[in-house]
Amino acid sequence: MAVRSRKAALRVFSYYTFPDWEKYFKNLVSPGNGEDVYTYVRNGIQVRYSFSYIPDLNEGKTIPTLYVQRCEIEFSPAVPIEQIPSLVPEFIPPTEQTAPTFRSNLWILIFKGPPSPEANFIVKEQGKEKLSWSLAYQMFAINGIPDTLSVETPIDRLEITTQSLQIVRTHQRLTHEPTLNPYSLEFQKHPPAPSPTIKSVPQPHYED
């Protein structure tokens, strides 16, 4: 186990042993920037969990209670989408075809379950009270998500967060393309059709 701190929004981290963190560094790093890190090896795959927190500053305590705001799970090497539930027992994706699912060229986003009013506490978005927030799973691929998504698509990182379906549908329509839930039975029976072959433009041939 270790603790790491994140620099701004970049994926640049500093790692500390737990004794060093407790003795000194926790007084220098904001609770919102510190993360607990746990690494396991499952089925020959390195699975690294990291938990980021948000403090409850309304408690009036010297050391406020921390609540998990985001959980990131990284895989080394990358693993197929279908293998993630066996590597991460806490990951129980929805199997309904109707589960809101979106994609880009770098990630797949799946919403699960109804919105929860209690989720507002861990959200930092302005105007969050006017929106509904739900459990969301976002899977990232360093080398990109292929045009034809399949259960074999390799994934490098899974994020378990709280996101708003309203924001996706109203403000992120250009970057979030609706797609079929890859964990649904319908997807496994009828995967998306392959992208049409793009014919190359004929090149003129000139005689010497």
Question: Can you offer a commentary on this structure?
Answer:
With 208 residues, the chain is mainly beta. The chain has one domain (2-189). The chain is 11% helix and 35% strand. The chain contains 4 helices and 10 strands. It has a 10-stranded antiparallel sheet. A hairpin with a 2-residue loop joins strand 3 and strand 4 (45-55). The longest helix is centred in the last third of the chain and has 7 residues, at 165-171. The chain is globular, with a radius of gyration of 21 Å. The chain starts with a strand and ends in a 19-residue tail after the last helix.
Q: What's the quick description here?
A:
17% of the residues are buried. The protein has helices at 18-23, 84-87, 165-171, 185-189, and strands spanning 2-6, 13-17, 34-42, 45-55, 66-80, 101-103, 107-112, 134-140, 154-163, 177-178. The protein is built from four helices and ten strands; from the N terminus they run E-E-H-E-E-E-H-E-E-E-E-H-E-H.
User: How many structural domains?
Assistant: 1
Percentage of residues in strands: 35-45%
What shape does the CA trace take? globular
Distance between the termini: 69 Å
- The counted number of beta strands is 10
Structural class: mainly beta
Topology as a string of helices (H) and strands (E): EEHEEEHEEEEHEH
State the helical fraction: 10-25%
Topology:
Layout lengths: L1 E5 L6 E5 H6 L10 E9 L2 E11 L10 E15 L3 H4 L13 E3 L3 E6 L21 E7 L13 E10 L1 H7 L5 E2 L6 H5 L19
Jot down its keywords.
10 strands; mainly beta; 35% strand; 11% helix
